[in-house]
Amino acid sequence: MATETLSPELEAVVARAAAAAPAYAALTPVERARLLVALADGLDAAKADLVQIGMRETGLTEARLNGEVNRTAVQLRLFAETVVDGSYLDARIDYADPNFVLGPRPDIRRSHIPLGPVINFSASNFPFAFSVLGGDSAAILAAGCPLIVKAHSGHPELSDATAAVALEAVRKVGAPEGTFQLVHGREAGVAILKDERIKAGSFTGSIGVGRLLTDIAAARPTPIPFFGELGSVNPVFITADAIAERAGEIASGFLTSVSGSAGQLCTKPGFVFIPEGSALPEAVTAAAGELAEHRLLDPRIAQSFNDRRDTILETAGVTPLIEGGVRFDDDGQGWAKPTVVTVSLDDFRAGHEGLVEEAFGPLSILVEVPAGTDLAALMPEFYEGNLTGTLHLSTAEAEGTTENAPELRALVAALSKQVGRVLFNGWSTGVAVTPAQQHGGPYPATSNDSSTSVGTAAIQRFLRPVAFQNAPAAFLPEALRDDNPLGVPQSIAQAGESGDWGKRFGA
To answer: Sorted alphabetically, which keywords does the UniProt record give (predicted)?
Structure first.
């Protein structure tokens, strides 16, 4: 793939980012942290105005968007603390060892450096948390990389307003010009992704578009890493004892998780495996009451969801439990009520091709499983990668001492191989912004199954390791110096240790 000539406008954008890269990477951790906090403060100050724009453009509720702004600001502040702490640099020092068991060992020190300019493609369903200043953007800036954001077409006015907040924060703290920039249009985003000065990309959206962008990044003369969150159906397994113990509570939590934000969440529970003949369908019906309709994000998403819903309802053996539906207004906007259906395991297997694809909206499928079914085998039979997998257990089962404990452990092991986060007695929607969070999973959940887009490990996507051998102290990064002026955690291998490796495990 040859590098394409950019338009003058896009050339200026990429040139500014490339020029800013060394200066921004050279900022001290405290200086970079101040930018992240300034971004968070700016979001807080502009929240009322930003939320009103977001409500108009996306149809999401004021409460949801207020919470999303708060989450975005918290993540920026968390990353500020992480940058100063320095543990994300994974600094390692192996002191020179003339008596090393394989021959004299040189002084080797390893840490991480920023990749360079990165383009982030915004998401439609999280106009704050995965958009202009969302998780990917925060991680890119925390890593020390200049950021170019491709705004989502579903909320262009909000993107511009948020970008204004970001540019003011950059100006306020004196960060280099070109540290943050915003562009509009898919063609512009693709053209920038192809430019050799761009060193990585990130994306949250559909499998089709995500795969297209991933392939573009891989096909460049110099391939670059691309971190895409692409799709997930988030299977749930509920035991008979859990249903007997708290069917009403489970049903209520399930409906809240499926209907929240009109089901337009990558972590929505799309498939729920329950024992055949259980009381859960009846409990779900009882808990449903009169479910309110909710506007979907835009006409394209609404039509796509309506088509998927029709396909599912037309599949042999599928029975509506909660009918739901989609109403289109004069502007083409779709207003959805939740749909929940049931299907036997045999019919699910027979109609697998039409059922297993993600339905991006308020719809979920209860799969009724006969007694004696090997639950662990269902994961590799039906699914590739997913963001989450959930188990609902009874109080006794949670202690791990019941007769079915081996079966449940096998199910947990199967889930661990195919999802990024395994939940117990909860619901996958509502991703906690914490250091240990994992928001990723095997393909097609994400394009890189070792990465996360939430939590402090998200920063490491936009760094690469470099080792320094026998480097004079004056030429070492501060994180690798013996005096450790940054105070970062250092993993140190002293001289003379290698002769004792493995001895404590010998017979």
So the answer is: Oxidoreductase
